[in-house]
Amino acid sequence: MLTPKIVISPHISVYPSNDAGVGDRYRVKIKNDRYRSVSDISVSVFVQERRVVTGGEIKVNKRIGTVWSTHTVVRKRRNDPEKDNCRRVRILSDELEEVYLSKDHPHVLVEVYCRDSWSGVGRVFRQSYAGIDGFRYGSFKHGDSMEIDPYVGHRKMVLLEKLKQRDEALAAVAQPADIQQSAADATASEDGTQASAAGRA
Predict the structure, then answer these.
(1) Which of 58, 30, 27 is nearest to 124 (CA)?
(2) CB proximity list for 184: less than 8 A, separation 6 or greater
(3) Shortest CA distance to 153 belongs to which of 162, 143, 145?
(4) Any idea which of 2-16, 83-97, 128-142, 155-169 has the lowest mean pLDDT?
(5) Degrees (nearest 5) of the Cα angle 167, 150, 46?
(6) Could you tell me which of 32, 37, 41, 94 has the C-alpha nearest to residue 68?
(7) pLDDT digits (tens, 9 = 90+) for 93-133
(8) Strand blocks (E) in the chain
(9) What distance in Å separates the CA atoms of residue 90 and residue 173, rounded to the nearest whole number?
(10) What is the Cα 78 distance to its own chain's centre?
């Protein structure tokens, strides 16, 4: 009861930047789940790398970004519509783009350290993200919700949708030979039936 209690979002938000020449913005959301405020917040980001050693391999956490926040996250009061117990934290790291686009899809680890404002006791919280599945296109909803509103206009999503439509169009045009032959036989049979009926008439 003397330590803080922080909840970290289960996904990393990916949202395009409005600045020219700047890549996507990556954010996590943290929530203070106690009624007391917390201070001295620091958010660190690691990537899990595999290194070959004698007799096998080991996993090593490589730090790729650190965010120091001076904001105080306050637990929301009852009937408080602002819900100011949450903060969105931007991850300032150029390497995260490379991690996201990597074919290996390494795991990302977010570590949050903070202290309870009353007792002064600190605690570390961690959240692991399993490769590309840990990312979501969109922005976090307001309030204490950890859900992400999807951003359908993201260039990567648009590209994937165009590729999907192209594949569907190619599949519709390039039908297998047996399907085409069956369609031709059905047309010939229908023509023969019509001709026979015309002869009997």
Answers:
(1) 30
(2) none
(3) 162
(4) 155-169
(5) 100
(6) 41
(7) 667 777 766 666 678 899 999 999 888 899 999 999 987 78
(8) 6-8, 12-15, 25-32, 38-53, 56-69, 86-91, 108-116, 122-129, 135-140, 148-150
(9) 46
(10) 31
